[in-house]
Amino acid sequence: MDINRNNPFVDCKGIKQKREVLKALSKGAKAVVKMTGGELKVNDVLIDSYKDKNHKEFSTFLGWKRLGFTVQKGAKAFCVWSTPLKTEVKNKDGEKKEEETEYFGIAFLFSNYQVKKEDKWLFL
């Protein structure tokens, strides 16, 4: 059982490589968004592209934890864009400008195929 099957981020070495792969995947996703008239979002298209016969549902580490699951050892996260983060811009002198720009971070998701139900043991 390969829990990382069909995960385009499995061979990435660090966040920079994951961001580059995510950018490339997003180009195709943007075309689909445009075809749907904006009905779908880029992340929706990305998540749909990650789905297969094994990977059917996706959630964050904490999302699965709240549902009573643990992420299996060795599972590599699927990546999508996080909600935009506000960052302050600095000028050449290092002074902060009033202007803010949007920065999209990366959110890490795991599929139902990469988690298992937590065993709750009661020790007396």
Class by alpha and beta content: alpha+beta
Largest sheet: 3 strands, antiparallel
Helix content: 25-40%
Element pattern in H and E? HHEHEEEE
**Straight-line N-to-C gap:** 35 Å
How would you write the strand order of the largest sheet?
A: 1-4-3
Count of alpha/pi helices: 3
In total, the number of domains comes to 1
- What is the alpha-carbon Rg in Å? 18 Å
Into which percentage range does the β-strand content fall? 25-35%
Which shape, going by the Cα principal axes? globular
* Number of strand elements: 5
| Average pLDDT number | 89
Gist?
The chain has helices at 15-35, 42-50, 61-66, and strands spanning 58-59, 69-71, 78-90, 96-111, 115-117.
Which descriptors would you attach to this protein?
124 residues; alpha+beta; 3 helices; 29% helix
What would you say this structure looks like, in words?
With 124 residues, this protein is α+β, with helices and mostly antiparallel strands. Helices cover 29% and strands 30% of the residues. The chain contains 3 helices and 5 strands; from the N terminus they run ααβαββββ. It has helices spanning 15-35, 42-50, 61-66; strands at 58-59, 69-71, 78-90, 96-111, 115-117. It has a 3-stranded antiparallel β-sheet. Strands 2-5 form a two-stranded antiparallel sheet. A hairpin with a 5-residue loop joins β3 (78-90) and β4. α1 packs across α2. The longest helix has 21 residues, at 15-35. The two termini are 35 Å apart.
